[in-house]
Design a protein that fits this description.
Elements: E1 8-13, E2 34-40, E3 52-55, E4 61-62, E5 68-72, E6 76-79
Antiparallel strand pairs: 1-2, 1-5, 2-3, 3-6, 4-5
Amino acid sequence: MVKAIEDRVFIKLDEPEQPSGLILRDDVTNPRTTGVIVSVGPLVKSVKEGEHVLFHVFDDLPTPDKDIVVVREYSILGVYEE
């Protein structure tokens, strides 16, 4: 696993939703914008590992693991409360 640095946050993406109803095209997928934080950099103050978050879809960067992305702290829009 990679350890985040600076204000970076590594997020394990939630499983993609399976579409329901009539499907006209199967090559269009909705981007995944929620997940669980697996690593935070030392400058991150607003979130912590293990929290389920919503983040801005256009700010994520892919990693070698297709289910993990990295974003800056300011790209996190909110934390889901249980």
